[in-house]
Amino acid sequence: MKPQKPRRALLIVNSRARRGAESIDAVKDVLTAAHIRLEEASTKEHENLSELISRRARDVDLAIIGGGDGTLNAAAAGLVFTGLPLGVLPLGTANDFARTLGIPPDPVQAAEIIARGTPKFIDLGEVNGHLFFNVASIGFSAELAGELTEHAKKRFGTLGYGIVAARILMRSRLFKAFVDHDDSTETIRTMQISVGNGRHYGGGMTVEETATADDGWLDVYSLEVDHWWRLLRLLPSLRRGTQGQWDDVRAFKTTELTIRTSSPRPVNTDGELSTWTPAHFRIRPKSVLVYAPEDES
Q: What number is the average pLDDT over the span 120-137?
């Protein structure tokens, strides 16, 4: 059997991620034992993560990123531009993208997938030119992203989502939106519109139970509940991804849509506020190579 050809990997760890300050020596041992030469790097002043990846792309064969969903989101444009395969080390709070692909939450086990696996293509979502792995949303989740501080994420983990969400939920009101898709326009009153590329988001929520990150579709749902307490009844379905079966939830699949609101509203992409309505969404099929288990879970 021929000896395995050494690979060169750009290793980027977000030290500000919830578990970013933990030692990853065991991770490095797994990778180096698999003949992966690690080149650790961090961003320069006034440089973002995508720019770092683009700057170092000629020197490496893949990029290994340790952090949460927000860290991966910041790297998306650089990965698309360079074509470098992505290895994920889940070190964030929710790690929803890793869950969608079935990547274990243990960074050492995740490293073993990078060491022995073969990368596969996945889709990305795009809104107003901003790429996202998991979900983009307008309404309740965008308010949550705006108020969930980095300190709360580190201190409380996924519990932090629930604490802040309960406070926002009590004051939430429906807003009017116009949704253009598939040659039609729907006028709705909603608490939240979510547009998903992957399956999981928000520290345990599910866009649609059968969604995958490589199915070529955007999964859309709108929460059109008239009282906040009705949303509590929906929570089990929101976790399973079966909310589309409820009468006060509008759900459909598409490849492109535009959401307009009476006044500009922020759009949350993978936990970060990145743009405003009007928001034009589209699917970007087979945009990024990612090391993941063969069967998504």
A: 97
